[in-house]
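I wish you would study the pair of lines that follows with an eye to the fold:

===
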Amino acid sequence: MSNVFEFVAESRGQSGKSVARRSRRKGDVPAIIYGGASAPQMLVLNHNEVIKHLEHEAVYSHVLDITVDGKTEKAILKGVQRNPARFQILHLDFLRVNMSDIVKVHVPLHFINENTSIGGKKGGIAAHSMVDVEVSCLPSVLPEFIEVNLAGLDIGGTVHLSDLVLPNGIEIVALAQGPEHDLPVVSMMASKASKDDAAV
């Protein structure tokens, strides 16, 4: 079995919906890899292997090895199309990356100390506005996730994008567009119980 950061594929010479449907009926996943100096290439991957890979959160924010007919390229996973009615992956989009070029990738947010935060100890509830954030960086420093420490968050308080502690070399794409894009990430809301306690 290939490791979690390697997708083994075969080239798929033809494109089109009918070809993609045939691939799915055979238990495969149609895909495309594009970008860089090479032309877009149609691929097909084993569905069971894809499912195993996608169970790992890091796959969505990691530079991957895409091995096609024995040749390996570096890429990131840019899109996953799922069947909402069945446990089925319909299509994957891979974007080739050059390790010396900046990439933009959505990275998961990991929230810590929610229950033991200042507001959490008062019965507050953290309301998450985001579960991931788009960052720009070199592929070599792409983080698996960004940690959001809520220890100091009190009821009524909010963590914004500009409050996130980022690893070196990482920039948040939205913040480069101006201060009006400094959106809330998570807020500590008073629960009904904590409001009742305050009223006593």
